[in-house]
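Revision sheet: structure tokens.
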Amino acid sequence: MDIKRSADMVINTCMGAKKGETVLIVSDTCTDEKITKALYASAVEAGCETLMLTMEPREQHGSEPPMLVEEAMKSSDVLLAPASKSLTHTQARKHASENGTRTATMPGITIGMMKEGGLNADYEKINSLAEELLETLKGSKEVHITTELGTDLIIDVEGGKWMADTGMCHEKGTTTNLPAGEMYIAPKNVNGKAVIDGSMGGIGLLEEPLVIEIKDRKAVSFEGEGAEKLERMVNDVGPDGRNIAELGIGINPAAMLIGVILEDEKVGGTIHIALGDNSTFGGDVTVDLHLDGIITNPKVLVDGIDLKVERFA
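Predicted:
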């Protein structure tokens, strides 16, 4: 698929942009201008009042944008954020959603990702699958995740709300990642060991596993590839950076493990956990950090029943 067709799909299929709506594109100086120009052209063709704002890159995924950008986000009907650092888990994005803005964040999006991979999936099918999974996961209490590499996690999700990122963002205040395709929840508690073997936010693709020991929803130690760098990033934001913020399940069969978390976390048949902020999706920790770690080939038991996540690949 070429960039133009992908941009049209984002504007028309995923966002359902209508003539006369205001579309805001927020990027940073690390984003390829071909991407923002393609999105801009598609929005204009759809009859939208279209604006672009370019800022300096944020320090981390989850760092807040400038106040001027936040105010513009809140005033838009549709927000597209193809920036190098994610605005998904920011108060600015949350406030925009509360104000009715439909948002698609696209952190780290590349020309290659526009042409192939998860962005070009059948999002109507992903939406149908997500609806089925929401019924399966609804009311669940405990998730047990194991892998042959040594992951062994007990995750308490009782009372939490499972959410779906399907790529379809037509209702006021809804938000999605693009590429999309995941189920996720803010866990109540987490204990055990996570062996991250796919990729890690802030680090990239892993050649060797990264091991995170977890006690009472806190990462207590890091070992393996990228451990020192990850611990520095976590420590830079204080104790809340160690919070296990999210459990996610990838359900996009077209997504590929490429070292860009935006796509990696959607890869069908994987799971991911995240460190840091979860205040934007029902959690209780607010901090300028959200870093996902991808675990491949997991076995996932939900209240003792095998979810068979391999079927999503």
